[in-house]
Amino acid sequence: MHNLKYIILLIFLISTAALANDKKDFKHFGMIPILSEGRIKPLDTFARVTLLGIYGKSALKDLKAIDWLAELLFDQRAAYHRPVFKIRNSDVQKALALEPHENQIYSFIAVSSALKKISPLIQALFTQDSKERSPAQNQLLELYMRVSNYLEISRSISLLVPQFTIGDEQVAKSLDLPAQDRLSYLQVIKRQSILDRILSDIKNKKSKLSKESKDRAIALSESLNSLSGDSESKVLRIVPPQFEKSPDREWVSPWQVVISGQGTPQTVEYFNLWANLSSAYFSPNPVEFEKLAQEVYDYSNKMAQTLASPTKLRWEQLYNQYDLFVKAVAFYILSFLLLCISWLAWKGPLEKASFVALILGAIPHFTGLVIRCYIMARPPVSTLYESIVFVAFIAVLASIFIEARRKGGVGTFIGSVIGIILLFISFGYEKEGDSMGMLAAVLDTNFWLATHVVTITIGYGCCFVASLLGHIYLLIGIFNHKLKRTQEEIEALSKNMLGATLFALFFSVLGTILGGIWADQSWGRFWGWDPKENGAMLICLWLLWAIHGRLSGYFKKASYAAIMCLTSIVVVIAWFGVNLLNVGLHSYGFTESIANNILIFTTLEILFTAGAFWIIQRRQLLTKMGT
Amino acid sequence: MFNKKLFLKLSRVQYFFWSTLWLMVLVVLGTLAQNDQGLYLAQNTYFSSWFFWWGFIPLPGGTPTMGIIFFGLLSQLIFKTHFSQKKLGIAITHLGAFLLLLGGLLTGLFSFEGNMVIPEGQSASYFQDYHKLELAVVNTDARDHDVTTTFDQGWFGPGKSLTHESLPFTFTILKFCANCSFERRTLTGEQKNNYVGFAQNFSISALPLAKEDGENRAGIEFQITGSDHDGIYSVIEAMPIRQSLNAKDGRKYYIEIRHKRYNLPFTIKLFDFEKKVHAATQQAKSYKSVVSLIDGDLTQRAVIQMNEPLRYKGYTLYQASFIESNDGETTVLAVVKNVGRLFPYISSIIICIGLLIHLLQNLPTLFKKRS
Amino acid sequence: MKNFFIIIVAALLIFAIGYYRDSNTIPNSSTISKGVDESLSVQMSVPSFKFTTLNGEVKNIQDFKGKIIILNFWASWCGPCMEEFPAMLKIIASMPDARLVAISSDDSTRDIEKFLSKFKQSKELIKQQRILISLDQKREISSTHFNVLRLPETFIVNRKFKIIKKVVGSGPWVQGDIQSFLQSL
Fold first, then answer.
1. Residue A260 CB burial class (10 angstroms; 0-12, 13-18, ≥19)
2. How many CB atoms are closer than 10 A to CB C51?
3. Which of A92, A297, A588, B353 satisfies CB 3.0 to 4.6 Å to A28 for a cystine?
4. Cα–Cα–Cα angle for C66, C72, C75, nearest 5°?
5. d(CA B193, CA A587)
6. Which residues does B358 contact at the CB level (< 8 Å), separation at least 6?
């Protein structure tokens, strides 16, 4: 009996190990460098961004992006039947005459044949101006583009994948090609002129072939022709420039290599490796695929020389895999929960534990920023997405400092709340595409990014910390009969608010002026009164106004805290709101939801601040009247 | 009369408090207005003006508001600031802020800027203001140079009479529109003789100003007396056919309305404009102009690119944008002459130092360590 | 009053520095970014292959190690091939250690001979074996070894037997760009 248990356990272990080996490890396949959207990135990132554009998420329910890409390249039969196109709009569904499917996700086969049936409509829609089309029509066209992109990627390596078998001995002999081997397009097309002669002989009835052979020859020619449309496939730019190794030169797709005359002995070798890889995809032994993928990867790097950095490719793949900011948010949530529980029981140890959780969250947060900085070779504040993550980190860092000095959980509260909110907002922006994109020419300067943008975002972070201190002050003001904080503690909190304001003022003013200096260096105008500049100025003026209000006696303790609470609105408007002005408030989708969210946030903040302030004033009035 | 008491009063922090609050309101209103009116108009209405209308109520604009802040700060600096150790940080900060505003004032009053459009292979020695207009009367008699007399935009009021000792004839402005449209018109016999050239076939009428100031096309209709072909002429910006006429003594002139030109004490010749895109995209990576700076005997090759301007003789030339056409590339350079240029740099350092000193002095009290 | 002087002095100082700096009569030298050295160690080896010349001799490309080799893929029915051939002849005639290996995708040697008959100068150079012409009807050399699909495509091999440049189409030959490049080798 005893032994039986062990045998079962052993079988279980072996089977899971075998199961584990059954799954292909796409490690080296994911690292293969590709030029996309202006930079060299690993195939893993390309797969995620492409899937994001087609499916709406960067991973399918049961399949990672890189797995999906491999299937699309090597096994079209399976890929074309996999449901990946989400069509939520019912008008679009009706236009395509698609049956309602579960989750409204459709396969390529279903959607492309539906689109083909209405292709005159599609053609007509393309000629129209986008403003004249209805939202459903725009979505239809957008779906068409997604489907075209899907098709284009799937045909990327059709020229080198072995897929033709001649079969007929006579035809094979005339072409001097092996009859029973699987040949690729390139291997067959080199006999094009001979095949053409066979076909013209058939046409002129001069052919000496048997009927089956004639049919086979015609069929072979037709299958070759059906691939000629694939020569437009440009998107899989995996072939580096062969002779001029400059970062300004384009990488090309396999089809482009032969169409535009870039074939060399190196591409011959490279294509052979890819052909072997495509065959290994169907092998029952997953190790074979990984080994050949490594050969492709190594050869690709050898061709690219300095244009691709193996270290950066590997680090980007790891960065994609480990989702560091999600891990950071998880720790921040843990920290917040522990803090909340600490208010009910076990104050001492849980408060310390929540602080530890905050610090643990800051580590992947910081690491993620550093890795981004290394991969992109620029400060991690160049896009709106990056600035959100950076501001969150600054706020967490400042909170750790506050907590270390004054203890009591205030710092942890601020850090975890800001960290959670901002990182969740950032996840929304991550969905827009490749988060490591290229910058417009005027922004592409590391010096000013590192000085102006970093300073201003540090300023934003400090503003949020100050704002949250204000919230805490008001909340303590309301609930102090339960919390029983001493006068000294409240006084200390008030001083902390002033300190945070000064930090925020320092960085905001410095950052704004640096922005002006950058503008002066770039186009000769220090101050142009444009929305972004006005937004930054608004924050500086607000902070100055608050401080001088306090110094002149206009703002007593509680009112100052209220002003601090409202600072968050000012920052949000200056940071996100100004982006909306340029686009126009009536565009659909993401921008509309940003505008709504800003409105909701502003309303909530004002309600809270006004409400809390009113309660405190009333209570003070009552106590005054009472004495 | 310089009223010391009033000046002293301005130093009270209440003035700063309320004027800053109003300035914030202005910034919000002005930024929202930019969406509809465009940057230039909104700036003029809210920020550079003395007052603006809100419905029927006149409200103070940017100039008086910032004026109060400026003089309040100056007053505070002179009468109330003590450079003592305890308040050193704040004192330095206020000094820096004042210098920043002073620089802004100098820039606003004395600087001018515009752009230069140079096709590849050609050169230019003047630049054009972004907004201001001028009416130019050019005498083309001399073989190797033209003599130009210009009238600034201030002269463009209806009924104004323009003369100059160098000109043998007189202008009387009939109509000026900052943005105009033109329509064909048919004139009957006698009327026809009064109008000459373009004005004979087209009438100009005012349009509302465009959001982008560059899209505005200005036009003037005027009467000429004293030439050999008197009558009513009209010119509009960038018109294809020059309006020309002769003086009674045969001297040849042509007239045009254009953006105000500033002559540079040197010439810029464009050798080559280069634009790089990110590989396999349409996104611009960098652009630069390789130019030759010619000043008398000095000829020097220079490169003007994004974030790297050319500075010479008080002028700074920036790579602003470009025009691509079938004939070749044209660079557009922004030119600025700004005496207040250095103020922001130095005042920002001063403000920084001041705030840092204040922060470091007060850090222990503001963030007390828990016992 | 002391403060007043501080302000005036500071303002004048900044103004003076700015004025002095901006009125310089020597324009600031801007950084002219160095272009990337584009001939970065491209060490592409020539694959070994055999080819049969028009008079039946079997040669290996390795036989020509040490010479400058113009490896040209062409066909008689291709217009640009006709355009570029005279320029190639001229180069071979003027450079004693250059060789032209011209691999044709024609159907038969008859087509090649018809083409060559239009270029009398080629006869002597072929005799001297400075031009070698081969028929590759099945495209074994062009496609299998070099991924060449369209014509004309030419590889330039240096004396160290490395491929250093590829020329697509007849343009650079006709315009004379290649001559100076080859002479610099």
1. middle
2. 19
3. A297
4. 155
5. 54
6. A502, B88, B89, B90, B93
Q: Which DSSP letter does residue A73 get?
A: H
CA torsion sign, C132 to C136 to C139 to C140? Answer: negative
Contact residues on chain A for B309, CB-CB shorter than 8 A: 521, 524
DSSP conformation class of B124: E
Compare all CA atoms of chain C with the CA of A266 and give the residue at the minimum distance.
Answer: C44
Beta bridge partners of C53: C134
Residue environment code for B112-148, b if the CB has 16+ CB neighbours within 10 A, otherwise e: ebbbbbbbbeeebeebbbeeebbbbbbbeeeeeeeeb
Compute how many other C-beta atoms are within 10 angstroms of the C-beta atom of residue A461: 26
CATH superfamily of this structure's domain C45-183: Glutaredoxin (3.40.30.10)
Both tokens of C171, joined, read 């343009």
Q: Please tell me the distance in Å from A518's CA to the nearest CA on chain C.
A: 17
CB contact under 8 A, C149 and A263: yes
Q: Do C40 and A245 touch (CB under 8 A)?
A: yes
First-to-last alpha carbon distance for chain B, in angstroms, is: 59
Q: How far is CA A144 from the centre of its chain?
A: 22
Helices assigned H by DSSP within B195-239: 198-201
Write the DSSP string, A598-624: HHHHHHHHHHHHHHHHHHHHHHHHHHH
Per residue in B4-42, pLDDT (tens digit) is 777 777 778 888 899 999 999 999 999 888 888 888 888
Residues of A with CB under 8 A from a CB of C: 176, 186-187, 189-194, 197, 242-248, 257-268, 271, 305-306
Instruction: Answer whether A608's CB lies under 8 Å from A602's CB.
Output: no
B175's enclosing H/E stretch is strand B170-177
Contacts for C61-65 with beta carbons within 8 Å, 24 or more apart? C61/C101, C62/C161, C64/C99, C64/C101, C65/C161
Side-chain half-sphere CA neighbours of C133 within 13 A: 25
Delimit the domains of chain C by residue range.
Answer: 45-183
CA distance A42 to A32: 5
Q: CA A536 to CA A515: how far, in whole Å?
A: 9
* Contact between C153 and C144 (Cβ < 8 Å): no
Per-residue pLDDT of C125-184, as tens digits, reads: 888 899 999 999 889 999 999 999 888 999 999 899 999 899 999 888 988 888 888 888
Angle at B195 between CA B194 and CA B200, to 5 degrees: 145
Task: Find, in chain A, the residue whose alpha carbon is nearest to that of C77.
Answer: A193
For A457, the token pair is 């975002």
- Which residues in A94-237 belong to E strands, given as ranges? 105-107, 164-165, 182-183
pLDDT (tens digit per residue) in A85-126 = 988 888 888 888 887 777 888 999 999 999 999 888 888 888
Q: Is C158 on the interface with A (CB under 8 A)?
A: no
DSSP C106-134: -S-HHHHHHHHTT-THHHHHHHTTSEEEE
Q: pLDDT averaged over consecutive 10-residue blocks of chain B (371 residues)?
A: 73 86 93 84 87 88 90 86 82 92 89 90 91 89 85 85 86 88 82 82 86 84 86 87 84 89 92 88 86 88 86 88 87 90 90 91 76 49
**Smallest Cα–Cα separation from A413: which of A345, A341, A485?**
A341
User: Subunits touching A (CB < 8 Å, at least 3 pairs)?
Assistant: B, C
Element containing residue A57 per DSSP (H, E): none
Query: Which of A189, A244, A268 is nearest residue C145 as measured by Cβ atoms?
Result: A268
Cβ of A246 and C38 within 8 Å?
Answer: yes
pLDDT at A15: 54
Q: How far apart are the first and last CA of chain C?
A: 78
Q: Does residue A462 surpass a pLDDT of 90?
A: yes
B267-294 pLDDT, tens per residue? 999 999 988 888 888 888 888 899 999 9
Per-residue DSSP letter, C45 = E
